[in-house]
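The records we work with from here on pair a chain with its fold. Taken together, the tokens spell out the fold as the letters spell out the chain. The record below shows the convention in full.
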Amino acid sequence: YKFAVEIKFLWFASIAKLAWISAHLKRGEPKDLDIAKEMLAEALAEFEEIGADGFVEFLAEKRNSIK
């Protein structure tokens, strides 16, 4: 049960992180891009941990498109 609760929390935290990543990318300042890249790497690892393969693929593509 505890593991399931932790996974559920991680899921929602990772989804919220996607909104922050999007906001930083839209702002487009160099510091924002650095923050977005860091958050994207964190979210990617979190989604890998919980086995959300669709999000992993989406974020890997997003990561590769950021310059």
Residues 2-65 form one domain. The two ends are 41 Å apart (CA to CA). DSSP finds three helices and no strands in the chain.
